Request: fold
Amino acid sequence: MSTSVAADSHPLGPLQNPGRVGGLTDVFRRRYLLKLLVRKELRVRYQGSVIGFAWSYVKPAVRFLMYYFIIGLILGPRSLENRALHIFAGMIMVSFFTNALTAGTKSVVKNKSLVRKINLPREMFPVASIMVSAYHMVPMYVIMLFGCLLTGWQPDFGAFVAGVMALAVVLTWGLGVALLLSALNVFFRDMSNIVDVVQTVITWTVPMIYPFGIIADRFRETNQVIYELYLSSPLCIAVLLNDRAFWVPSVERPQVALSEELPAYLFQRGLLMIVLGLVFVWIAQAVFARLESRFAEKV
Amino acid sequence: MAQAVVVDGVTKTFKLANHKTMKKLVVNAAKRRPLSRSFTALEDVSFTLDQGESIGLMGLNGSGKSTLLKLISGVMSPDFGQVLTRGRIAGLIEVGAGFHPDLTGRENIYLNGAILGMSETEIDNKFDLILGFSEMEKFLDSEVRHYSSGQFMRLAFAVAVHTDCDIFLIDEVLAVGDQPFRKKCMKRILELKAEGRTMVFVSHNAKQVLRICERGLVLDAGRVVFEGSAADAVKTIKYDITDEDED
Reply:
């Protein structure tokens, strides 16, 4: 048996704890595995269904039509230029986030056979599920860009910045939520029902179906607390940023839309949400790492 | 020789929660019922393994062998004591865990290789070896769901034994497949051993343990009841060497 000094200079490295957790850095280190897991998920998700991948678009398309006709044209809070584009810009954010929420929450439990038997960075599963959800956004962006071109979209520099910021907000918060809830779901299977409730709340508390102007008219002057509370949701900010990017440059008088349908300091709010999102990811990862040591026996 | 595995005073207790949902947790807490029962799977287990050594873990079902393997692989962590390892570890623990029935044999080789820690080039380089070992060339591009359970295990085992690891954890896997394939597996494991890999081997088959391992450890209800040579370990547990299996 060698001395500890000799052991430390061993070609295979030092003796170490086999269960040590490297967190998200380990996921990046093993990105080849991540790529294969994402590819598997994309291949397998709609296997055996007749129209396959198209289901990812049928569902949001139907939702979109309902919002547009029932809420927009029949109940119609008030006329809004390019309403379809306004709804769609918000829906991309909301459907990514709800997707990330539902799929992310189940991601660890769904892979229980791997979690129980093989030592790999378990953050892999929520991260892969976020990437799958993000992949599904791509065709929606393409459709939206077509819509933009049809309505004479003239993007300014602010539109590009807003579009990128909107993505950054939902990606960071989506990742944080997926990490946190996937870990909690191992211990409390109630999570997926809680997620259903949250999903409904999200749909109605962001200016997607109705324009933000309604909230502003109602509360900006009279009730600052409700107004700021409404704007404190990261998803709300992401939707507003996406409106700024795609809807505002498409209307006839963008300046009017900016002052009436968007809150003041939108970019500052966006930046704050991104920073808070990163902090949230960091916290979520710490919780995940803490709970992870008992995954194998609980899942 | 340098140490490859150090298991030092390890205790592992499982808490079996009496609640699966938040509601039951609240109800149980309100009624002051115990929130969980506990069960000690391993108690104060210690042993060390030098690089290139092979140890056979023996004991009846439920004696803690698999839990010990999971602690060494890092899938679980001990409540008390510590486990230290050196180098890359491959667990041949239920080797098919990473296989997905809807993917083809080829895709599963890559996916499972990556799960076991191989890089893309590493799998590319070993692809032919893996395929040759499994003898599944004909079914390479059909989905694994159409495989028989034996064929499935062949492919899974082939991937696992071609990972470039320093420590192999082997749990009962040699009980699968037909006899020619079992022979081939045994041969491969002896090859790995000859290359100087460290092995922890769980088996109820005394003959296999004697062929692969020079050391033996017998567990009973989570405690070490014997540690010494493999031959003495087999005697301790009174496994019948003339029993079945003729490889």
